[in-house]
Design goal:
Blueprint: H1 3-17, E1 19-24, H2 29-33, E2 37-39, H3 41-50, E3 55-59, H4 62-71, E4 76-78, H5 94-103, E5 108-112, H6 117-120, E6 125-127, H7 132-137, E7 145-148, H8 151-161, E8 166-167, H9 180-189, E9 194-197, H10 203-206, E10 211-212, H11 215-224, E11 229-233, H12 236-245, E12 250-253, H13 268-277, H14 286-301
Parallel strand pairs: 1-2, 1-3, 3-4, 5-6, 5-7, 7-8, 9-10, 9-11, 11-12
Helix pairs in contact: 1-13, 3-4, 4-14, 11-12
The protein binds 1,3-dihydroxyacetonephosphate and iron/sulfur cluster.
1,3-dihydroxyacetonephosphate binds at residues 25, 40-41, 114, 128-129, 172, 198, 200, 214-215.
Length: 306
Amino acid sequence: MTDQNIISRINELKQELNAIILVHNYQIGEVQEIADFLGDSLGLSRKAAGTDAEVIVFCGVHFMAETAAILAPEKTVLIPDPEAGCPMADMITAEELRVVKAEHPGAVVVAYVNSSAAVKAETDICCTSANAAEVVESIPADRDIIFVPDKYLGSYVQRTTGRKLILYPGYCPVHRKLMPEAIEEQKTLHPRALVMVHPECTPEVIDRADEVLSTSGMERLAPRSEYREFIVGTEVDMVTRLRRDNPGKRFYPASDLVVCPNMKKITLEKVLWSLEEKKYEVTVPEEIRKKALRAVNAMVRMGSGQ
Ligand code: 13P
Ligand code: SF4
């Protein structure tokens, strides 16, 4: 089957099943092109919460599909590859979070959305990279805050808000591959470029950036900016999207090593099989879902995001 045949069949099945395809910015180019909505974690969560479709095919990693299932339990949420996980989300379990909570009684728990439903159920409010600072600033100044699982996003939020956070030692192994030397090298090669990086990067990388943004923040900034060239410090397929949407500008990956292998597991064929066989359904036990929903809803309502 050619790509064109696969896409035609996907479109037919979408009509038949009343399905919508939600796609994260790190998906491969072919999958980005079949998106009904292409975006960051916050935008995708909002879309999942608001859609009238009966079936959501989630082209992203498991925690993203799970967040859609938390928000839209009456819909069928499918992930085309059940093995597409997020190693950062796996760095903390609900049990581990309960231990941290016991050590800091009364602290407010903020969980990055890159976490399991069970962790979200133990959380007061979730955040994404787009609204983490706003979420932290919404918490009364006299309250302690536990921030899990991303220590780099957490330390960036500490920096921007001036709030002291109790950090957990999780991180994204993909963004950690981006070294400050790679940014320096790209700056030498492209001295007129604006450097934009994701807040999952290390503080040493963030120190060398002009802008620290979620993936959709990058997407919004690129066309509006007076800059014509950009060094992009995040997953390489973000550059695929930026180049497609801004043909008059130039985008350089800060490093070719920043590839999320889990995001790459989803292909056009797998999206088709997902629709054909209604697989793989992502569900969350009702008891956990109800608890997690409070934290996710609070996040979805918070701010416009960057
Ligand atoms: P965004 O919400 O910025 O798209 O990031 C999600 C993610 O997993 C980054 O690694
Ligand atoms: Fe998880 Fe990092 Fe991949 Fe994002 S890029 S999905 S945080 S492993």
